[in-house]
TrEMBL record:
Record-annotated DUF397 domain positions: 31-62
Name of this chain's protein: DUF397 domain-containing protein
Pfam families associated with the record: DUF397
Superkingdom of origin: Bacteria
Amino acid sequence: MSEQEPILSDGVIIEFIDGKDVPVGHKDFGERAVVMRDAKNPEGPILYFTEAEWDAFIAGVKDGEFDDLLDEEPPADV
């Protein structure tokens, strides 16, 4: 599996790691896991997602599922 540089987006660090390297044992992460951390506090809490969970999250964002959480309404042309 090829290494990918971490992504920094809106103050969040997103990394794709080998699923065997996840220190959480309550579910199977498969070959790859997605890790999210706060860029301002990279040593703080870490969120781990399976690829299926990550794909569902991205699909929800694209579908507007979380728009009600925004402080402002998104532009009408989105």
